[in-house]
């Protein structure tokens, strides 16, 4: 296997329905601009409350994607 390098970024997705949908929203958005997404790790989950009621679910994830050399990406 060839050597590879991956970049890891942190994202926070939100949803009014669930933590899973919040994570999926973050991945979906990342997929629009990043290529070769590899792994997503749930780091933290929390809730946005309004008058004691759940207003939104938030999921913080770490996402890794393959690092590409600028020269290689242009080829």
Structure description:
By secondary structure, the protein is of the alpha+beta class. 27% of the residues lie in helices and 51% in strands. The protein has two helices and three strands, in the order βαββα. A three-stranded antiparallel β-sheet has the order 1-3-2. β2 (37-50) and β3 form a beta hairpin.
Strand content: over 45%
* Estimated radius of gyration: 16 Å
Helix fraction, binned, reads: 25-40%
Q: What's the N-to-C terminus distance? A: 22 Å
Summarize, please.
This protein is α+β, with helices and mostly antiparallel strands and 75 residues long.
Defining traits:
alpha+beta; 75 residues; three-stranded antiparallel beta sheet
Q: Which SSEs are present, and which pair or pack?
A:
Layout: E1 6-15, H1 19-33, E2 37-50, E3 53-66, H2 70-74
